Amino acid sequence: xxxxxxxxxxxxxxxxxxxxxxxxxxxxxxxxxxxxxxxxxxxxxxxxxxxxxxxxxxxxxxxxxxxxxxxxxxxxxxxxxxxxxxxxxxxxxxxxxxxxxxxxxxxxxxxxxxxxxxxxxxxxxxxxxxxxxxxxxxxxxxxxxxxxxxxxxxxxxxxxxxxxxxxxxxxxxxxxxxxxxxxxxxxxxxxxxxxxxxxxxxxxxxxxxxxxxxxxxxxxxxxxxxxxxxxxxxxxxxxxxxxxxxxxxxxxxxxxxxxxxxxxxxxxxxxxxxxxxxxxxxxxxxxxxxxxxxxxxxxxxxxxxxxxxxxxxxxxxxxxxxxxxxxxxxxxxxxxxxxxxxxxxxxxxxxxxxxxxxxxxxxxxxxxxxxxxxxxxxx
Amino acid sequence: xxxxxxxxxxxxxxxxxxxxxxxxxxxxxxxxxxxxxxxxxxxxxxxxxxxxxxxxxxxxxxxxxxxxxxxxxxxxxxxxxxxxxxxxxxxxxxxxxxxxxxxxxxxxxxxxxxxxxxxxxxxxxxxxxxxxxxxxxxxxxxxxxxxxxxxxxxxxxxxxxxxxxxxxxxxxxxxxxxxxxxxxxxxxxxxxxxxxxxxxxxxxxxxxxxxxxxxxxxxxxxxxxxxxxxxxxxxxxxxxxxxxxxxxxxxxxxxxxxxxxxxx
Lengths: 379, 264
What we know:
The complex is a heterodimer of chains A (379) and B (264). By secondary structure, chain A is mostly helical. In chain A, 69% of the residues lie in helices and 0% in strands. The longest helix of chain A has 31 residues, at 287-317. In chain B, the strands form 2 sheets. Chain B has a 6-stranded mixed β-sheet, with helices on both faces. In chain B, strands 2-1-4-5 form a 4-stranded antiparallel β-sheet, covered by helices on one side. Chain B is α/β, with parallel strands linked by helices and 264 residues long. Chain B has helices at 2-16, 62-69, 91-100, 116-126, 132-145, 161-173, 191-206, 218-224, 242-247, 252-261; strands at 22-33, 36-47, 51-55, 77-82, 85-86, 101-104, 179-183, 210-214, 227-232, 235-240.
């Protein structure tokens, strides 16, 4: 043993071989191991495999070269009209998007006040961090800020108390999507939890109320609810009171998502074995304690895929505000297509809008995967 | 016939020692699951520090009986008085009793999303309002007692069945109960793990804890129990001190049960 350790450099015999006991550990030859072997077996294993592989490579190559060429290489990034773009390149005309970018982001928010939107976006990111990362230092204090954020944002965006008032009619573009989406996401989860627990309640009145609420909300399309919010809700408030249309939409979108959320969470609650409730009861925990400390942490963890699914659906549904005459990012895109200077650029607009939603939703989905992994405790 | 005989005898035994230290008193208690009459006219008095083993064929109502004692099951008729407090629909009484009664389940029922230490401190912190640090010290003390202090930071899913059950016992003890109920604590365990759990239970018995144990471990019953109760079809058929119970069973059903369970 000691001998083998001492002789680190293998001694080589005259004819190029190794002396007994000094053969080094070599990796297996590439014909049975490693990427070359993998490609050989999986991609070129038979004639059919080889043909399919070559075909796929050809399609991928032509699609990618076309896409990259259109989007980047042959694209025009500056210009004042479509003709400017045409003059430079025959690919995408991103100058259009760049030209309209502030409209896409802020809608009709008055220009001198747009710093307030920027500030509320920055504060939003700061408010989301402590919610998403359990391990951050000083999380308790940070969470207090997160809870206060909706009030701060409402003040910043709407104004009053020293800031100039901005009517919610002027909200639009991406900020409208974010306002509705974030409000819906932030409030639908707690409301959904309460509804799901209410549905399991021992008290018949609570149970009936929750079940009917969930079933009614789920049984009606969101567009219908938004019409109700736009038209009918004003019948129910005293005449003369101005119940802001945006607030009505926020309420409807939130309630709609809560109905779905409640059912997703109910699924999680049903997966919790009875023994967990019994152990919590036997320990002397009160109802809300056992829910908060024992049942919900497990039920919500199981429900993460469904919850995020609902979040993503809600976020994309924010484009539906177009039906009651509000222009979100998609609405702004649609209406700017009518500009004669920039005619025929619908592909660019829709790709831009699609990318915005894709990146928002894709990050949510990645975060949820990360969270699921983190919360996995080996059971 | 033999049934009434044995009951009058044990009644007499209990009568002689009756007094302040009756910690559990069950009088003419009945329970139904829907139409099914699970427990029929149960009368049972248990003294403080007494150790009882309840056995009987499956479906005989043993588990239901002990689950009635901390109100995991509701009885419909009769009285259950634990430590001087009668179990009624009054939530306050239920809370008071649950603070005094610990239970260990067949399937451990540890909280899988919490570490072993957090499982143990949950009750003390939220029910007894113990400061976190003190609760953790208490938890470590009991983890040492069940011989797994090194597992404190792990999650229950990472432990073996025997270790999980020992954690469950420690979790109950952290609440400082006067009575411990065991609902078939070794039935879900692999044979080689049964001993480590029984050892912990025997040590607990030596401290003078009042214990009611539903189990098929007759060796444990012989060495630890003060009294063995045999139940069948929702009734207490026979109860006696272990030596008499095993060597001289009076009721035919007891004899049959013992012959089946001790056959191998």
